[in-house]
Amino acid sequence: MSEAKNIIYLNGNYMPVEEATVSVMDRGFLFGDGVYEVVPVFGNKLLRVNEHLSRLQNSLDRITLANPHSDEEWSKIFSGLLEKNAGEDRAIYLQISRGVYPKRDLAIKPGYPPTVFVMVLQVTPPDLEQVSAGIAVITVDDFRWQACDIKSTSLVANVMLKQQAVAAEVDDAILIKNCTVSEGTASNVFIVKNNVLITPPTGHKLLPGITRDLVIEIAKNNAILVEEREVKEAELYTADEIWMTSSTREIAPVIRLNGEAVGSGAAGAMWQRIMDLYQQYKLLLRSSNEK
Ligand code: PDD
Hints:
Elements: E1 7-10, E2 13-16, H1 27-31, E3 34-42, E4 45-46, H2 49-62, H3 71-84, E5 90-97, E6 115-121, H4 128-132, E7 135-141, H5 156-167, E8 172-177, E9 180-184, E10 188-193, E11 196-199, H6 210-221, E12 226-228, H7 233-238, E13 241-246, E14 250-257, E15 260-261, H8 269-287
Parallel strand pairs: 7-8, 7-14, 11-12
Antiparallel strand pairs: 1-2, 1-6, 3-4, 3-5, 5-6, 8-9, 10-11, 10-13, 13-14, 14-15
The chain binds N-(5'-phosphopyridoxyl)-D-alanine.
């Protein structure tokens, strides 16, 4: 049986991924001069698409790149792609780079169209049993820049940090800057202490995760106390629970930190409660009529 074609969107056209090409002079290729988004899709419904598009706008504003599309145009591109690619639970990946200039030059110049690329990621939905087994992480020094709120395609620092986790044979890393927690290599971090959910505040040190916001919203709607405040590195070692959240990971319980057990050494009760509520939210989205 032949594999279904992976159809992508590039600068106004839909085409098989094998036929899509971008110039070597593209500033995304030369400088990582671009931004991106990853939007989860459940049963053809996009999760919090307005929030993703507003974060995209923020990233574009921060790098002074005009948004090439209105929200309606983005929605049309997304539904066009979802129609052309079969699947249920997956994600939309979109990236916009500053386009192709004739010369390699850091300076921004007007008059060059951006490169717009969108594809469907075949994300395997996390298997609940596997997720509840938890993940092992290490702490690493967060040497990134002071603009981590931009969802930038310049990800070499994140690649290097993730590689430290790979070398240590663990699943991921929690990034520490000045003895405080910033986030994961591609996720946000929560701790639970005495039934209070605690996560670092948004700002230049981390990406304002859409999953993070959803988890906070779900917790508050269910009378769980939430504190958005600085989390000291030392608090990780006395936390009852630690979680990492992202569009693709959803909510992953951390059961080992630098080789030591976190809390009881298994996914905690608060994680189970929020995870159940998160799964209910997904089910509602899947069965909702609005796109
Ligand atoms: N990354 N922090 C960083 C550095 C991230 O890269 C991500 C997500 C998050 C969580 O954001 P959200 O909940 O909106 O997914 C936090 C995506 C999934 C990626 O790069 O693939």
